[in-house]
Amino acid sequence: MNSRLKFLLLNLFLFFALLTKAQEKITVGEKQTLFSTVLNEKREIWIHLPKTYNDTGINPAKYPVIYLLDGEINFEYYAGMSDFLAKPPYAEMPECIVVGIKNTERTRDLTPTKSGKKSPVNSNVVLFGDSGGSENFVRFIQEELKPFISKNYRTQDYSVLVGHSFGGLFAVNVLLTHPEYFNAYVANDPSLWWDNKVLISRTKDYLEKNKNFPAHKFLYVAQADNEEQNKNWNSDMTQAIEEFKEIIEKNGSLNYKHHFYENEVHGTVSYPGNYDAVKFIFKGFRTDIKKLSKNPQLLEEEYKRFSEKTGTNFLPSETYLNVVLKFMKSNDFKESEKYFNDLKHKLYPKK
Amino acid sequence: MNSRLKFLLLNLFLFFALLTKAQEKITVGEKQTLFSTVLNEKREIWIHLPKTYNDTGINPAKYPVIYLLDGEINFEYYAGMSDFLAKPPYAEMPECIVVGIKNTERTRDLTPTKSGKKSPVNSNVVLFGDSGGSENFVRFIQEELKPFISKNYRTQDYSVLVGHSFGGLFAVNVLLTHPEYFNAYVANDPSLWWDNKVLISRTKDYLEKNKNFPAHKFLYVAQADNEEQNKNWNSDMTQAIEEFKEIIEKNGSLNYKHHFYENEVHGTVSYPGNYDAVKFIFKGFRTDIKKLSKNPQLLEEEYKRFSEKTGTNFLPSETYLNVVLKFMKSNDFKESEKYFNDLKHKLYPKK
């Protein structure tokens, strides 16, 4: 090898070595692109995998999936939040895969009907011309995105749909039109005022026809204190949400929680709303590690109860069992240690 | 160049090209390592830069810095949260740099005195042998980490210290021993029971000697509903926090807020606590873009008020002014558009 070539090779190597190492980054997800035949466009998807996803010390696990609308706004804190809340020993929820969907034509995708609205600031402008595409968008999610996620990642058959504003409208509409698509729905300050409250009519129609929602479905609605909006902007936002609340609570067949956030406005309510929503949806998931020391079979009892409530079979994860085992060992609870050792080997036999 | 060399070169190139592209990642920060002479060890620091930090469309801006203890647990959601809450037009806080400090010897660094404690689960075990190093740790932050951050990043002279449990104990201790180090302090479920409530004594001593806290200091305390812990674990946790609250509220010289979270336990309270804390610390930061359309000088009035409250000069960011300008333009508020255009060019003259 002549010396000029050696020099070139060395430089090339150093250049790429620097490029790849540089600063070590803290990542919370990866971007994927898939082409949607239904929508006839490319869609960008942001995917967060839980901390243990690539842990080679445990058997490969499967995880519930949370589908998050307006991905570009909510993905980063949501990914961090789901890891934080799923961290043993205080885990309030199972570790989840979070799938953020980035918008292309937001109004088109999230609204259930074609409807315009005069701009509240300038009445010459008609907003939302390109609306009414939500049925296509949910078909994209159900027929294209979900199979894509299940094919490429290890998923458990349990999913949640999370939206805000038009995204909340979309979530409620999916619950009414395809309740079987998701196990739980989160609607932060949903735009139920849309098109003369068309979803209020749909809710009434649904309940007239079906009487009840399917078993084990969950809906969390966060309502912001839109005092400002009430006066200047969206005077019918609050009223439509309250009307919906009344109908749902009266029917009583849905695991439903509504919370009014007096210190939040329309743009901020998703942050506490999404946190409280997962706590509501996964209520009963947390087990008290200290109680298990004297009452080890409590763990399976509580998981059984939680599984019945959600209509889905949830098992203590191998990661959680390892935390429990470590606790029993370090505090010298020998009997419980043996119990959980046996349970671990029953649930997660070594390959 | 002979063909074997060409082949080698091509392969090397492809290998590194793949390595650098692969999947596009979503990053929320970068890791840095610095050697601390004070602590005589290497420390890993996680740094989150706000969305506009590298925006070449605006003048390079300076940002307040939030120092976050237990970085490895809280960094990811906190980084996402600070971006979410700083997003115009609903921004409740300025864009901030978040500096997460990863633990090495947590108990050593965060506790103010040397003290042991019998394990509540097994009384033969004495916990916290290696305690009492907080004065060294705060010297590391003040004399080494802060200069490192200011040298490598564009920082505004405003900083916040955030901690949980022993980290909350640490934050309160820094407020008492070096109140000038930070503008605001956040203590989530602080371990004020530490060493026979030594910080309660220090608080009393401080107020006896100084009468008041320095002007413009802020402290937010989040208290979890540790009912379980009260019974089984840390019976003095709650009591010490309440004692502290009483002393501080009676003195009245601190911008102080205490909130009890009835649905949170010790391990989860930081999540809502950190959110509510920034909303408390930066209360008055948010301006209503719709009001500005008819009353443009309101923006400077509100920033002036906020600057007086915090004792720090805050200006509307160029990014926010661009959002305001866009709003005025698209809604045809010509006079306000001109006003904000002039203000933008006054505050951010083109280079």
UniProtKB/TrEMBL annotation, chains A, B:
Annotated Gene3D superfamilies: alpha/beta hydrolase
InterPro entries reported for this sequence: AB_hydrolase_fold (IPR029058), Esterase-like (IPR000801), Siderophore_Hydrolase_D (IPR052558)
Molecular function (Gene Ontology), one example: hydrolase activity
Signal sequence coordinates: 1-22
Keyword set includes Hydrolase: yes
Annotated TM spans: none
Pfam families linked: Esterase
Keyword Signal found: yes
Protein keywords: Hydrolase, Signal
PANTHER family: SIDEROPHORE TRIACETYLFUSARININE C ESTERASE, SIDEROPHORE-DEGRADING ESTERASE (EUROFUNG)
Family: Belongs to the esterase D family.
Protein name as it appears in the record: Alpha/beta hydrolase
